[in-house]
Specification:
The protein has seven helices and seven strands, in the order βαβαβαβαβαβααβ. By secondary structure, it is α/β, with parallel strands linked by helices. The structure holds nicotinamide-adenine-dinucleotide.
Length: about 260
């Protein structure tokens, strides 16, 4: 008798991971590839995207890397065209590319252009990607879209000045995702968010020496997370195991949101 496949198996699936050049996106891209997926790596930093892509190929999967500024509609559209030309399908999309929310001055001093930049990359950028992904997935009558959100989108963390614009954008991602889940449920497309707690990545490592202790002590599980702590949630939401799960915000945060 043939062995039953794991319900998390991603063999034969094609995934797109934005911001896959480093940090959480890189870890998620490699996790999907380890479960069998072919993965397109999209990033504004082509060199980093190339490195992740090569690591995926060395796992025996197909991969391409595409330089894209995800805040630009024409670049987003061209990127999805290229992915479809190479792979002909998109089963899983992880919209993850983002910028750190913890480097702004106190709210009264924030330059409004910094807020707009967050909106362009992490709200409109995600939305434009979701639109392109859904157009492809509607034709396939299936697909999984995962938007990387943050605990800050539900509960702005204490002790980080100027977090308001980032928190607002992430709250927008969370509720936007629920709206998209409603629109696209009839096409068998699931749309969910994952909300990480504090994670050590190239975006945050410079502030860990000054804030690491505070981050760990705010986290009930007593430590800061690593990118690979997010892998399991992403594999679940990318796989057939989550076929009837849509519009959820999956917290992976060591309890930070409580
Ligand atoms: N690190 C954390 O503590 C944490 C916590 C919660 C949520 N998040 C979210 O996780 C996601 C990834 O964060 P990270 O810590 O891995 O960051 P990171 O800076 O290490 O990686 C982000 C990647 O996105 C790319 N990127 C940025 N702007 C882009 C653009 N306009 N077009 C294309 N690519 C672009 C960068 O080049 C980079 O490779 C972000 O959405 C972030 O808000 C991070």
């Amino acid at each position: 008798m043939e062995a039953r496949k794991s319900i998390f198996d991603l063999t034969g699936k094609v995934a797109v991971v934005t911001g896959g050049g480093r940090g959480i996106g890189k870890s998620l891209a490699l996790a999907l590839a380890r479960e069998g997926a072919d993965v397109a790596i999209v990033d504004i930093n082509k060199e980093n995207a190339d490195v992740t892509s090569e690591e995926i190929k060395s796992l025996g999967r197909r991969s391409i890397s595409i330089k894209t500024d995800l805040s630009k509609k024409d670049e987003v559209q061209a990127m999805f065209k290229e992915v479809m030309k190479k792979f002909g399908q998109i089963d899983v999309a992880i919209n993850n590319a983002g910028v750190s929310g913890s480097r702004l001055p106190s709210s009264e001093d924030i330059d409004i252009n910094d807020f707009k930049r967050f909106i362009d990359i992490m709200l409109l950028g995600y939305f434009m990607c979701c639109q392109e992904e859904a157009r492809i997935m509607i034709k396939q009558n299936k697909g999984h879209i995962i938007n990387i959100c943050a605990v800050a989108g539900t509960r702005p963390p204490r002790g980080i000045q100027g977090i308001a614009p980032y928190a607002a954008v992430k709250a927008g991602v969370k509720v936007m995702t629920q709206g998209l889940a409603l629109d696209w449920a009839k096409y068998n497309i699931t749309v969910n968010t994952i909300s990480p707690g504090y994670i050590i990545t190239p975006a945050t490592e410079a502030i860990i020496p000054t804030r690491g202790e505070m981050y760990a002590s705010q986290t009930p599980m007593g430590r800061i997370g690593l990118p690979e702590d997010i892998d399991g949630a992403a594999v679940y939401l990318a796989s057939d195991a989550s076929n009837w799960t849509t519009g959820i915000d999956f917290f992976v945060d060591g309890g930070l949101r409580i």
